[in-house]
Design a protein that fits this description.
There is one protein chain. The chain is an alpha/beta fold. It contains 16 helices and 19 strands. It has helices spanning 39-57, 73-82, 86-103, 119-131, 160-168, 215-227, 241-256, 287-290, 296-304, 328-357, 373-391, 396-419, 426-443, 450-464, 469-484, 488-500, and strands at 4-7, 12-15, 24-28, 62-66, 135-138, 141-144, 185-190, 196-197, 200-201, 211-213, 231-237, 261-267, 270-272, 275-276, 312-313, 317-318, 324-326, 503-508, 511-516. The strands form 7 sheets. A 4-stranded parallel beta sheet has the order 4-3-11-12. It has a 4-stranded antiparallel beta sheet with strand order 5-6-7-10. Strands 14-13-15 form a 3-stranded mixed beta sheet. Strand 5 (135-138) and strand 6 form a beta hairpin. The chain is elongated. The chain binds zinc ion.
Length: 517
């Protein structure tokens, strides 16, 4: 069984055969840092996170490059509106992006190149394109001559006529009639107004005068610099197929004479009422808004319930004043995450309990009941089936079905063992722990310490219900004191009072934890 991935260029699933398994070259278009990251960013980068995890779990060494676009007209506009320098804007929102991606548990890229650090590479590539007759300078701008690249349109499967018609229908204020043909696109834009933001210039010197690089050339120049001319995987959102990636191919293949990417992966949008979620439509949520309602891992789980090429639907509820009160699908996913962590917590406690009991010898601790063979099979199947699901073009819904069956089996085994007042059989526990390790390694789920994760979840739920966590903790302490002093009537009364608030108590030995449904 080997990994196959759907390739947008050839429009088919292809076996994944990197140029060098010890150096898989993977490039994903990163964010333009002029605002806080939203749910659409998370969906995109989670897809490639799972791919990196899956490849590394199977022994590939992956060099994962994801850029930061820190030169862009939107950044200049934002800086001017705040009277900041562009650097203040990009540093602020890069930090915000990093914080959200860390919260989601994303593997950090090996290299995160910034456009502002690669102007020389960009200028060099533009010069090469000019030298090859594929680009031309016009009044301080430089444009790519689309006609020079015979295969233009091959990624988005557009004919030359369709490209031309589409371009001539567009009126672009930034391009003052300097292009030879409407479909040509900018590699470098002259700074005609000597713009400033926060008292600093917003352009860079070049052989064609002060200006800024076009968006498309950045990725070509930075990916070549860090990964060489041919990528094993190039990824990004579906909206980047045209024109961004089509233009990247034209630039890169003209400049290097080599195929640009062996697999082109594109993830679907987050949709609201069948419309793409986007800043321009105003129907988007920043991740920090969402994380007031759910733990970040709930979004990871929810994103994985849908295949990466399909749209991910998002709903939310509001109160009478239109204030957002919840995200039902992601909250439902959080219950699944909760179940994962509850099971993992029980498993850890079982290990702890069994190590305390172990002096009794194996005939008591972890004795193997005969009916465990069906359980064994379920546990054994977890790792290979998880792998097989992801090998099939990252079929994460199928992978989650495997996870669900596995976790239920572990839970049943733990419950049975607990009823019989014994620990899990050693082999069963080992298989269960290995299964969890695979789930974390390949999907990035259930990797945190269960107690901390569950506490974080219940604290968020308490906040949403206006329940004061400190008061809960205080009641729990009072009840523990009552239990210690054998005042069981008082202890029961406190439990009942908390239940009235929607708080459920769980005792495990002397420890009491609480949860909110
Ligand atoms: Zn790009």
């Amino acid at each position: 069984m080997t990994l196959s991935l759907y390739d947008t260029l050839s429009q088919q699933k292809k076996p994944f055969t990197p140029q060098d398994p010890r150096n898989v070259r993977m490039y994903v278009c990163g964010p333009t840092v002029y605002d806080h990251p939203h749910i659409g960013h998370a969906r995109c980068y989670l897809v490639y996170d799972v791919l990196v995890r899956h490849l590394r779990t199977d022994g590939f060494q992956v060099c994962y490059v994801r850029n930061i676009t820190d030169i862009d007209d939107k950044i200049v506009a934002k800086a001017q509106s705040l009277n900041w320098t562009t650097r203040q804007v990009t540093e602020t929102y890069t930090a915000s992006f990093h914080e959200a991606m860390r919260a989601l548990g994303l593997i950090e890229p090996n290299v995160e190149p910034k456009v502002s650090d690669h102007l020389q590479e960009i200028i060099d590539m533009i010069q090469t394109l000019i030298d090859r007759g594929a680009a031309y300078e016009a009044d301080g701008d430089v444009y790519f001559r689309v006609e020079s690249f015979a295969e233009y349109g091959k990624l988005s499967h557009r004919t030359r006529d369709a490209v031309r018609q589409g371009a001539s229908g567009r009126v672009d204020q930034d391009e003052p009639g300097l292009k030879e043909r409407p479909e040509d696109f900018a590699l470098w834009k002259r700074d005609r107004t000597a713009q400033q933001a926060g008292g600093q210039p917003t352009s860079w010197p070049s052989p064609w005068g002060q200006g800024r690089p076009g968006w498309h050339i950045e990725c070509s120049a930075m990916s070549t610099r860090h990964l060489g001319p041919t990528l094993d995987v190039h990824g990004g959102g579906l909206d980047l197929v045209f024109p961004h990636h089509e233009n990247e191919i034209a630039q890169s293949e003209t400049a290097t004479g080599k195929p640009f990417a062996n697999v082109w992966m594109h993830n679907g949008f987050v949709e609201v009422n069948k419309q793409k979620m986007s800043k321009s439509l105003g129907n988007f949520f920043s991740l920090s808004e969402l994380f007031r309602f759910v733990v970040p891992e709930a979004l990871r789980y929810y994103a994985l319930t849908v295949h990466y090429r399909s749209p991910l639907q998002l709903d939310w509820t509001t109160d009478a004043e239109g204030k957002v009160t919840g995200f039902p699908q992601i909250q439902e996913a959080e219950r699944r995450v909760e179940y994962l962590y509850q099971t993992k917590q029980k498993l850890l406690r079982d290990r702890h309990g069994s190590s305390q009991r172990s002096p009794q010898g194996p005939e008591h601790a972890g004795q193997r009941p005969s009916q465990d063979s069906a359980l064994d099979r379920t546990l054994e199947r977890c790792a290979p089936e998880l792998r097989a699901a992801l090998d099939d073009d990252l079929n994460t819904p199928a992978a989650l079905a495997v996870v669900h069956e596995f976790v239920r089996a572990v839970n049943d085994a733990l419950d049975q063992a607990s009823k019989q007042k014994r620990a899990l059989a050693e082999e069963v526990r080992t298989q269960a722990e290995q299964g969890f390790a695979q789930i974390t390694s390949r999907l990035g789920l259930a990797g945190e310490e269960p107690g901390a994760m569950l506490t974080a979840m219940y604290r968020l739920r308490a906040e949403q219900r206006n329940i004061d966590c400190q008061q809960i903790e205080q009641k729990v302490a009072e009840r523990n004191h009552a239990r210690q002093t054998r005042d069981f009537a008082r202890a029961d009364a406190i439990r009942a009072e908390l239940r009235g608030w929607g708080v459920e108590l769980m005792d495990s030995g002397a420890d009491t934890t609480w949860r909110i449904e």
